[in-house]
Structure formats: C-alpha cells, structure tokens
C-alpha cells in the first residue's frame, strides 16, 4: 500500500454515527424550535439575587427560547449603590433604561494557551452614563457600574453573546460582590420594590 501512515490511521475499532447525529439534529430543529418560546411575559423572566447584583433575566440559554446566541438581563442598581465587579472574555453592551451613573473599566493583558493568563493594566477609566446611553464593555475588561443618584434607582439592559461560551472561552470571574448580594434572599415584586425605595 502506498500510504505509509496506514499502520497508524487504520488502528481502532470504535464506530460512532456522529455525522448521522448531525443530520438528525438538523432535521429535528424545526420540531424542537416549535416548542421553544418566541414571546416571554414578565412572569416568565426569572429574578436572581446574584453576585453581580439584582437581575431579571430576559433571555438565557436555560429559558427554552428560540434565541440561540444572546443572553440578556435587566439589572437594577438601587439608589447610590453599585453592581458587582467582574471580568469576562466576551464583549458586552448595556442600554441605560433609566438613571444616571458611571462605569469604571480596567483593561487587562490576556494570554490564552491551555489556560487563561490575564493581568490588569494600571489605568482605570471612568465613563459617565445616563438614560438613553449605551455602554460598551470591551472583551476581558474589569468593569463595574455605579448609580450616581442618591435618590433613584438605575436600570440597565445587558446583552452578551454566548458564542464565547460555546467556543470554550467562558472566562468569567467575579472580583467584588454587589452590596445587596445575599444568596438567601428570594426576590419577588415586593422585595424588588423595597430595593427601589432604598436610598
């Protein structure tokens, strides 16, 4: 036989219908998607008291929607408070629904090999925002949102592409927790109203 590497590539006895599975997955997509929601009501959107702060999830991979690539949540920052501080490899954009405040962003030098290695740069940049603005968070930037109004809450809508996660690049690190974070808290409308009145 002319193929000199045949001794190596002919080895192995395992069989698997991997391509057939891909074809079946594609064929099943219309039926599968027909069972996924295109419309979500507020009651379908779960609250979370997270380390990043008070969140109402609008779209999430675990919510059985047709959205394949984007996760989005609404973040409520009580008067005079702040979000958690975190860093993730994916870029993010946030729309300021109401309120005014500022972000602190710290770029990082990153190296991706078998593991992630990142080092914060010295400079911390401040960006002011108000209702109607869009905040852009570059990839791998340490960031935190601050509500500058001592009397009124701020609301932000965050959108992030989950393709990073599916590409094995879900590098997410929480550096500081939001002041309101308490894993024992169960959120509902009345509890949220209490946070909105705070300050």
Automatic annotation (TrEMBL):
Boundaries of each Cupin type-2 domain copy? 74-158
**Gene3D superfamilies from the UniProt entry:** Jelly Rolls (2.60.120.10)
Classification via InterPro entries: Cupin_2, RmlC-like_jellyroll, RmlC_Cupin_sf
Q: Where is coiled-coil annotated?
A: none
Q: Transmembrane stretches, by residue range?
A: none
Please identify the protein, giving its name as recorded.
Cupin type-2 domain-containing protein
The species this protein belongs to is Pseudonocardia zijingensis
């Amino acid at each position: 036989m002319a193929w000199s590497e045949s001794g190596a590539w002919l080895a192995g006895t395992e069989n698997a219908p991997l391509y057939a599975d891909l074809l079946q997955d594609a064929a099943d997509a219309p039926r599968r998607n027909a069972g996924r929601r295109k419309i979500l009501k507020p009651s379908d959107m779960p609250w979370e008291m997270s380390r990043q702060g008070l969140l109402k999830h609008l779209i999430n991979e675990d919510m059985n929607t047709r959205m394949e690539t984007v996760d989005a949540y609404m973040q409520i920052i009580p008067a005079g408070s702040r979000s958690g501080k975190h860093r993730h490899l994916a870029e993010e954009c946030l729309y300021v629904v109401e309120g005014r405040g500022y972000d602190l962003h710290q770029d990082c030098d990153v190296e991706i090999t078998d593991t992630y290695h990142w080092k914060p740069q010295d400079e911390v940049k401040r960006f002011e925002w108000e209702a109607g603005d869009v905040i852009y968070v570059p990839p791998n930037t340490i960031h935190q949102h601050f509500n500058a109004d001592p009397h009124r809450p701020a609301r932000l809508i965050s959108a992030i592409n989950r393709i990073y996660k599916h590409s094995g690049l879900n590098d997410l690190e929480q550096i500081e927790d939001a002041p309101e974070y308490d894993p024992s808290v169960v959120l509902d409308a009345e509890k949220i109203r209490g946070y909105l009145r705070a300050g």
